[in-house]
Amino acid sequence: MTIQWFPGHMLETENLLKKVISKVDAVLEILDARLPQASANPFVNKICKGKFRLKVLNKNDLADPEQTKLWLDYFETEKKVPAVSICGTQRSQTYAALNYCVSQINRNRARKLKVMVLGIPNTGKSTILNSLAGKKIAKTGNVPAITRHQQRTSLNNNIDIYDTPGILWPVIEPKQKAYILAASGAISDTAIDYTDIAFFAATLLIKKYPDLLMLRYPFLETLPEDEIMLIEKIGSAKGCLKKGGIVNLQKASEVLIRELRSGKIGKISFETPKDIEL
């Protein structure tokens, strides 16, 4: 599956970032802790050369904690870049990430320190900004591309932080990365086929998180043999039926994806550092 979802405002954002990146002192690159590699936009590497950049693995409350630890070690040991993991709704954690970033910069306290927040859609950038500000100043939501324009907020300690729209790249490849991004909610649902994504998600869950599946769906007497059987059993139990008792795969797929994204199935990571070696 090749996904092409590149709204016009994303191209505008790229052009804007190229112009303003020279004016900031540091960058907080917000990644999804469930998919740190897939949620990293290659464009950020190009424009952040020469700037201090901290990789922030957000949504660690939804990710497999063991895998998050491995990802932090991977970035710091293999990639030689600083990384932290946070839950963006926890102000203490967001400030710890910001303070670490600030501590790495030689600054003139007579002028404001400028920190830019970058990342792909739906990684929680606006949530982090609201958490830092201690009030709602940026729109948030469970759909990608909520933020459409750059926003500046003044914080304590003479710091300005800039929130920017999420940016993807025009063609998302390879297929595995496209599936991971779609399953996590980083891509608009209008650009994907729910059943296609649910088959991918079901395969991952059966293979890597069978215990969580059985715990979440007690009507599963045994672990389903394949992804179709899992989706059909979920659809049957949740009343996603057509006439004649036939399972509506579209509706059943939507149920699975919603519960996966919300964390109801459990703390799950879509990829591991070992996957990079494959």
Automatic annotation (TrEMBL):
Residues reported to bind GTP: N58, K59, N60, D61, N122, T123, G124, K125, S126, T127, G166
Keywords assigned by UniProt, alphabetized: Cytoplasm, GTP-binding, Nucleotide-binding
A GO BP annotation: translation
SUPFAM superfamilies (alphabetical): P-loop containing nucleoside triphosphate hydrolases
Chain ranges of the G domain: 114-177
Reported function: Required for a late step of 50S ribosomal subunit assembly. Has GTPase activity.
GO MF, one annotated term: GTPase activity
Family in the record: Belongs to the TRAFAC class YlqF/YawG GTPase family. MTG1 subfamily.
Domain of life: Bacteria
Origin species: Desulfobacula toluolica (strain DSM 7467 / Tol2)
Gene3D superfamilies reported for this sequence: 1.10.1580.10, P-loop containing nucleotide triphosphate hydrolases
Name of the protein in question: Ribosome biogenesis GTPase A
Pfam family membership, one: MMR_HSR1
Gene from which the chain derives: rbgA
Classification via InterPro entries: GTP-bd, GTP-bd_ortho_bundle_sf, GTP-bd_ribosome_bgen, GTPase_MTG1, P-loop_NTPase
Location of this chain's protein in the cell: Cytoplasm
